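Key idea: predict the complex, not the pieces.
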Amino acid sequence: DGGITQSPKYLFRKEGQNVTLSCEQNLNHDAMYWYRQDPGQGLRLIYYSQIVNDFQKGDIAEGYSVSREKKESFPLTVTSAQKNPTAFYLCASSSLAGRAWEQFFGPGTRLTVL
Amino acid sequence: SQQGEEDPQALSIQEGENATMNCSYKTSINNLQWYRQNSGRGLVHLILIRSNEREKHSGRLRVTLDTSKKSSSLLITASRAADTASYFCATDAGETSGSRLTFGEGTQLTVNP
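Result:
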């Protein structure tokens, strides 16, 4: 059963703590993405990666870090430098073949800072 | 920065009516995509229209693209209560942007039974 998974579904963090959100895909997609969504808003790109061991900053990368050591995995760390991390985080992946770049999304992780 | 802007921000209709949502963008694009998001869930891809296409259909969905006006519309015909969701357009600006998409703010559609 192919797809993209995110864990945990809900995450609570105390101020000053780093937390890592998991994203895994078994679609054999080359590219993976992290987005942030605030209530009633659209998606803003945090980081994306088109190949293993390489990634690029999106529009709001400050306070976040990522790694891409395996094709299937693209974890996102929300650091204590992110001043307002409470949001819904979405991971996506896409094949780079054919130049269509339809993105497949995971179910999301809702992060709340206490 | 957000390139796509959806209009209206919110739309409420009765079951059986048609729903039309519009998207405007600023730069040239390779293709434009529409996605749907149920509350608290991930996005689901609905339809993609390439820059050299003007209209595309998929089931009850009809998408148009006017590159001269930098705008697109999504029409959902014979709406159902299950169509209640947020709808987002996303643009692919071509090779210089890599594989990234730029999403708009979305239209919240409510279909009343």
